[in-house]
Specification:
alpha+beta; 12 helices; Outer membrane efflux proteins (OEP)
């Protein structure tokens, strides 16, 4: 078949196209507008929101100055399996986006045919035909279905990148939090061991005082029990150290084992703890970005669902060479080609298209609400973390004064026990128990302070830049 026999342009095509445009102008097909996703200025409650200085913009190496902690975070970023999974998702999303971009361009294929046919009943005549041709097909994106799909896949890619950033910020937060927790157990273990040494000395002193009839046998036994009441906490502290080391090893993507570390007293946070303004959460916090891009994906997919109400215009073309002698195929003078345009308008599946649109709109509503929830939760985390830091700092100062007076109380009651009858060992015991409790709580206050900084840094989106 030759060109002059194939190309046919129907006069009714422009009329059909105008009819389709008229039909598709109904209300159900009109696109919705993208909503305003900006956060409220009151998102951070009573925190002054005029200053744009933001701790989230501080690199994590500048925030966490302990070189051992820096080394652990670097190892975690390099080897953590969750972060590797997130990176793989980004690659997959990139491939899907490139795939949707390719759909905007015509497809092209090359084929070859060989036909052998007996022309006579006795088989004496054999006819041969050889063809080499290419074909192309192109869906004209009149209504933007392919472009909306591309934008949806771009949003999906950005969502996967935001997810990777969110995993990294969470990973840094988890490593730092577990590291500080490990240092807390070390400090509590050290305090408890020193307390045991002091109480062992107290037992020896009580033995001398009993021999001199200063205290009773009951007081001596009570002092021995007091010593073991501190020592019995040692196994639990060592178990906590063991488990925390294993938890950090898991974050690092390594087998369980010991963790090189410093001390709790060495840990200082020198950064200015500023929250910035609520709008910066959109630029800094990855999970908020992730929720926004997820909503953008379904927003574009709603447009795609609407496009099914419109007709699809597809243009196909084919052309090639044909010859009855294979040796002359590439020198053939017989060239054929054709171009065909097809317009497909859904008629009997209109209800199916409506249900598809309703599903897409429901998804869009769902993920808009999910975005708002993520944003509100982010604001809550910011204000809670900053308030927790302020609370821990206040407690740490008061606890320091409490320990100072309790140390004096232990010394005074012990001296009174030796030289006067105005006190007994119960007073000494009470002072010692209160002192140990205050010292342990002082370590918890320091940990709370450090963890609040980590939580604030994470809640503002720090760590991925």
């Amino acid at each position: 078949m030759y060109l002059k026999d194939i190309i046919k342009i129907k006069k009714s095509f422009p009329c059909l196209l105008m009819l389709v445009i008229t039909l598709t102008s109904c209300k159900v097909l009109q696109p919705n507008r993208y909503p305003d996703l900006s956060p409220d200025n009151k998102l951070f409650r009573d925190i002054e929101a005029a200053d744009t200085t933001n701790i989230a913009n501080v690199p994590w190496k500048s925030l966490f100055t302990d070189p051992r902690l820096q080394s652990l975070i670097e190892e975690a970023i390099k080897n953590n399996p969750d972060l590797q999974i997130a990176a793989a998702r980004v690659k997959k999303a990139e491939a899907i986006l490139n795939q949707s971009k390719a759909a905007l361009y015509p497809s092209l294929g090359i084929e070859g045919d060989a036909v052998f046919k007996n022309e006579k009943t006795d088989g004496s005549g054999v006819s041969e035909a050889y063809q080499l041709y290419g074909s192309s097909s192109w869906e004209v994106d009149i209504w933007g279905k392919l472009r909306s799909t591309k934008r949806a896949n771009l949003a999906s890619l950005l969502e996967s990148e935001a997810y990777r950033k969110a995993v990294q910020t969470q990973l840094i937060s988890a490593v730092a939090t577990n590291y500080f927790t490990l240092l807390k157990y070390d400090a509590q273990l050290q305090i408890t061991e020193k307390t045991i040494e002091k109480r062992e000395a107290d037992v020896e002193a009580m033995k001398l005082m009993k021999d001199n009839d200063v205290v009773t046998g009951a007081d001596l036994v009570l002092s021995q029990a007091n010593r073991y009441s501190a020592e019995v906490t040692i196994p639990d502290l060592k178990q906590a150290v063991y488990e925390t080391e294993n938890a950090i090893s898991l974050l690092l993507g390594r087998n369980p084992g010991p963790i090189d570390r410093g001390t709790l007293a060495e840990q200082e946070i020198a950064a200015n703890l500023k929250t910035g303004v609520p709008a910066q959460l959109l630029a800094n916090r990855p999970d908020v970005q992730e929720a926004e891009y997820r909503f953008r994906y379904y927003f574009e997919m709603t447009k795609v669902a609407r496009s099914y109400f419109y007709p699809a215009l597809t243009i196909t073309a084919a052309g090639g060479i044909t010859e009855t002698d294979l040796s002359k195929l590439f020198n053939a003078n017989k060239i054929f080609w054709n171009i065909t345009g097809g317009l497909t308008q859904p008629v009997f599946n209109h209800r199916l298209n409506r249900q598809r649109l309703k599903i897409a709109e429901a998804n869009q509503e769902e993920y808009l609400a999910a975005y708002k929830q993520t944003l509100l939760a982010a604001g809550e985390e910011v204000v809670n973390s900053l308030h927790a830091y302020q609370t821990a700092t206040e407690k740490f100062t008061l606890r320091k004064m409490q320990i100072e007076y309790l140390e004096k109380s232990v010394d005074y009651t012990m001296e009174l026990l030796k030289f006067t009858s105005n006190t007994n060992y119960t007073d000494v015991l009470t002072s010692e128990v209160n002192l140990l409790s205050a010292q342990i709580n002082s370590v918890n206050d320091k940990l709370q302070q450090l963890q609040a900084v980590v939580s604030l840094y994470h809640s503002l989106g720090g760590g991925w830049k």
